[in-house]
């Protein structure tokens, strides 16, 4: 069993939330308004007409909230809080469907159970991290993501893909950048917008000089309260810009630099 596999077993055993780690200086989230618009034309039209929207966030442990100090500090929770503030007089429900240790195959297998009953207007699918940790390489994950997108669209949902986090355990994997590119390519091929978490967090680290301990939990993989707050607010900005722009086609572009 390889080191990464042993690490993954440890991740599966982690509690949902972990104590926040204090740092001498609180980092500043500089990327909130630099994110690309996530075009969601049908969701925008529905919100304008009914003032209601349901978003499901599907993924693994970083979506579930490992590393956050509480359920209200996860990025899906921060997404809902930010969207509520941006769209007063509406009801935007964000449902967290993250499960520790999963990746695309497990996500797809439980879509009928965990996603379809909510009748979501939008599904944000965080994918790719655990495929790297399992040391399986890219394998057939591209085809699995395509299958999942088709299934989610069958529920009537618009889909957004989110790529892996920029964290020590992910960056150390030689397949991390190919994975990011694969997800972007699938999004472009299937006309699905992609939220580039990897590139955004790389900006925090490389440009803003935010160290990994300042934006990661003690395990070097998951986020902390700062990272989830910044991610949630940045994601909310991208979603909000899309919801204010009805009847425009989806795009799979990003305003933050590509991984180097």
Automatic annotation (TrEMBL):
<keyword id="KW-0732">Signal</keyword>
<feature type="signal peptide">
    <location>
        <begin position="1"/>
        <end position="24"/>
    </location>
</feature>
<protein>
    <submittedName>
        <fullName>Putative lipolytic enzyme</fullName>
    </submittedName>
</protein>
<dbReference type="GO" id="GO:0004622">
    <property type="term" value="F:phosphatidylcholine lysophospholipase activity"/>
</dbReference>
<dbReference type="Pfam" id="PF25182">
    <property type="entry name" value="NonGDSL"/>
</dbReference>
<dbReference type="InterPro" id="IPR057572">
    <property type="entry name" value="NonGDSL"/>
</dbReference>
<dbReference type="InterPro" id="IPR051532">
    <property type="entry name" value="Ester_Hydrolysis_Enzymes"/>
</dbReference>
<dbReference type="InterPro" id="IPR036514">
    <property type="entry name" value="SGNH_hydro_sf"/>
</dbReference>
């Amino acid at each position: 069993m390889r080191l990464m596999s042993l690490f993954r077993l440890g991740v599966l055993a982690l509690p949902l939330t972990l104590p926040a780690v204090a740092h001498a200086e609180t980092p500043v989230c500089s990327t909130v308004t630099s994110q690309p618009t996530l075009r969601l034309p049908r969701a925008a039209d529905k919100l304008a007409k009914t003032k209601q929207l349901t978003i499901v966030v599907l993924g693994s442990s970083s979506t579930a909230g490992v590393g956050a100090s509480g359920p209200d500090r996860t990025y899906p929770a921060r997404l809902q809080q930010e969207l509520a503030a941006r769209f007063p007089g509406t009801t935007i429900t964000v449902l967290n469907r993250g499960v520790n240790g999963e990746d695309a195959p497990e996500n797809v297998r439980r879509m009928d159970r965990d996603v379809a009953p909510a009748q979501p207007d939008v599904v944000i699918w965080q994918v790719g991290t655990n495929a790297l940790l399992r040391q399986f390489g890219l394998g057939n994950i591209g085809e699995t993501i395509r299958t999942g997108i088709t299934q989610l669209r069958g529920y009537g949902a618009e889909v957004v893909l989110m790529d892996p986090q920029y964290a020590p355990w992910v960056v150390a994997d030689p397949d991390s950048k190919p994975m990011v590119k694969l997800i972007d390519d699938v999004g472009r091929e299937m006309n699905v917008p992609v939220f580039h978490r990897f590139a955004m967090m790389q900006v925090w680290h490389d440009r803003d000089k935010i160290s990994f301990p300042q934006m990661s939990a003690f395990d070097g993989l998951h986020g902390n309260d700062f990272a989830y707050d910044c991610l949630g607010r940045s994601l909310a900005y991208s979603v909000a810009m899309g919801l204010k722009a009805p009847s425009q086609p989806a795009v799979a572009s990003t305003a933050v630099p590509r991984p180097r």
